[in-house]
Amino acid sequence: MVLDLQDVTLRRGTTTILDALSWHVAEGERWVVLGPNGAGKTTLLQIASARMHPTSGTAAVLGSRLGTVDLFELRPRIGVASAALADRILPSERVLDVVLTAAYGMTGRWRERYEALDHERARVLLDVFGVGGLAERTFGTLSEGERKRAQIARALMTDPELLLLDEPAAGLDLGGREELLGALTELARDPRSPVMVLVTHHVEEIPAGFTHALLLRGGRVAAAGPLAEVLTAEQLSATFGLDLEVVRHGERWSARARS
Ligand SMILES: Nc1ncnc2c1ncn2[C@@H]1O[C@H](COP(=O)(O)OP(=O)(O)OP(=O)(O)O)[C@@H](O)[C@H]1O
């Protein structure tokens, strides 16, 4: 089991952010996590990335129960791309270094020494995401879409077993979104890829090749399972609190309010 969460509750002060949540993610699966603002999606990813511990319940990540494992050994096995992480990257950082420094779990180049192989891998990953030509530019000069791609390349640098993407398509224009989804589809369909968990607000942003969905509402699981079983009008309507029409187009999805 890649993620094994059992009755996970997370409280901050008097707020219950996650409420007795159980969720199991197995090898080979690609999950999307959907839910309205404040549902607890980002917090759930913090637990999945071993950045936060549950207040109660148990969370095991890549076979290790949080609280009993050396986090510095566990974290390189998990690739993360999120707005919070992007905020920590200096605009003056060279794009190649943005990817390279992931090998040390750092943002910002200091005095670490990298092998030629690391450089090679960082360049290949930037190429795979279509931003190989920008390796020598500084992060601050990239467009939003280019930054997202560089971040995913960074998240893959350590060859992780688990890849967590928090709203990778947020802020992208239509072309940028579709290109990114194309790259994520290739990744999702490749059996050598890590287990993937992608958080989004929009069913339109689910890449083809994804297999499972978790719907969150108010810190609780509203539904979880194979995509086609979970992404029903009834379940999405209940999760988002409005009457939705959901349409499947092959392996892509769309949703809108019923008129
Ligand atoms: N440290 C904290 N103390 C109190 N409340 C918090 C704390 N961190 C998060 N919250 C609250 O927990 C809830 C869940 O937050 P989280 O960021 O996980 O939601 P989300 O589903 O990712 O939301 P969004 O879609 O808006 O990004 C929110 O209501 C948030 O205000």
TrEMBL record:
This is Iron ABC transporter ATP-binding protein. Gene3D superfamilies: P-loop containing nucleotide triphosphate hydrolases. Pfam families: ABC_tran (PF00005). Keywords: ATP-binding, Nucleotide-binding. Residues 3-243 form the ABC transporter domain. It comes from Actinotalea fermentans. PROSITE patterns: ABC_TRANSPORTER_2 (PS50893). SMART domains: AAA. One of its GO terms (molecular function) is ATP binding.
